[in-house]
Specification:
Alpha/beta knot; 7 helices; alpha/beta; 7-stranded parallel β-sheet; globular
């Protein structure tokens, strides 16, 4: 075996080990996060939850991470994710690696659904039956969004009552909204309905 080929294989093994170690650390952090969710129920109950089902485009997720940080919402990502979340890849994609500590990553939809079983979950889909601003959100709710490529799978949409499948209005010739824009619209409507909870401004005096 040539020296260059041997070095190439060593590099592959090293990268695999780094990713494996990172996954262990991330899973452990998620475990701690999930424990903190249970142990600080009062605090978490005042947080809206945003769920991204298999997100594919890093800048969209980056925008949504910042959006959640600014609004006090908790972000959940459901695997498989269309990009790597190791530190080097996050830097390359323009994601804030440190902010991923506040993101919960789930292996599948069932895992996410189980963690949020005490919440009302709304599915946001262009095939929804009710406009997003025509429902009453509580500060305990979760909003589920599909991937940029294929949206929400039919079997997941079918788990939701028609009244819990929401859509955002668009012009007839439009195909879809950018994911981060759709999340921003829905999240801020839900937050508005809850009087922008955890902000210092008193909106009741308006």
């Amino acid at each position: 075996m040539s020296k260059s080929l041997c070095e190439f294989k060593i590099n592959i093994v090293e990268n695999l080990l780094k990713n494996y170690v990172y996954k262990i650390k991330l899973n452990y952090q998620n475990y701690l996060n999930s424990r903190s969710l249970v142990s600080t129920r009062t605090q978490i109950n005042s947080m809206l939850q945003i769920i991204l089902y298999t997100p594919q485009i890093p800048p969209n997720t980056g925008n949504i991470i910042r959006l959640c940080a600014n609004s006090g919402a908790r972000l959940h990502l459901i695997e498989p994710i269309g990009f790597s979340v190791d530190e080097k890849s996050c830097r390359r994609a323009g994601l804030d690696y440190q902010s991923l500590a506040d993101v919960i990553i789930h292996r599948n939809w069932f895992s996410c659904k189980e963690m949020l079983s005490d919440r009302s979950i709304w599915a946001i889909t262009k095939f929804g039956n009710k406009r997003y601003d025509q429902v009453k959100f509580s500060n305990n709710d979760a909003l589920l969004f599909g991937s940029e490529i294929s949206g929400l799978p039919k079997n997941i949409k079918d788990e939701f009552a028609r009244s819990h499948q929401l859509y955002l209005p668009m012009q007839n010739e439009s195909r879809s909204l950018n994911l981060s824009n759709a999340v921003a619209i829905c999240l801020y409507e839900a937050w508005r309905q809850n009087n922008f909870i955890d902000t210092d401004y008193n909106f009741e005096n308006l």
